[in-house]
Design goal:
By secondary structure, this protein is mainly α. The chain is 81% helix and 0% strand.
Length: 164
């Protein structure tokens, strides 16, 4: 990290750290298939709402792809273009905290949400500094759309399972 920071501005280094942060989060979530099992058992009453394939698609091309695209966009065009990564991370972390409050218990991914996601995402947003409000609105909107598409996919799967 010190070498990266010596070569690149702090916002780029922080955006780069989103991927390793997610890797740690994914270990907490998915070791022993804990997150998928939690979602299917606790939220959907034992139905196979979240499939293994969906977990792979969400975590590999969507999460890692989004972080990589945000990093390069910020590098090429400026920090505001990378804001989608910290907003997506922040939203993911808040979702885990909301689930913990709702179910009054730990959920897989909660610890890294508290220890990594909230501080890193907020620090990145602050480090990017003042940019036009439109950058923040678009980034937050994209983060919400990505999460909404994931929820829509799960709900469509539940609907298909119910009609099968």
């Amino acid at each position: 990290m010190p070498l990266l920071h010596a070569a690149y501005a702090l916002p780029l280094v922080l955006l780069f750290l989103h991927s390793p942060g997610y890797m740690l989060h994914q270990v907490e979530e998915h070791t022993g298939d804990r997150f998928r099992t939690f979602v299917n058992q606790r939220i959907f009453g034992g139905k196979e709402a979240l499939s293994t394939t969906a977990v792979l698609v969400i975590n590999l091309p969507v999460v890692w792809g989004l972080n990589l695209a945000a990093l390069y966009a910020a590098y090429l065009w400026g920090g505001g273009f990378g804001l989608v990564a910290p907003y997506a991370m922040l939203l993911n972390g808040v979702t885990h905290i909301g689930a913990a409050v709702r179910f009054r218990s730990y959920n897989p991914g909660l610890m890294t949400s508290l220890v990594i996601f909230l501080p890193l995402s907020l620090w990145t947003i602050l480090a990017i500094g003042p940019v036009d409000a439109g950058f923040h609105l678009v980034a937050l909107g994209l983060a919400v759309v990505v999460h909404a598409l994931i929820i829509a996919d799960v709900l469509l799967r539940i609907r298909r399972l119910g009609s099968a």
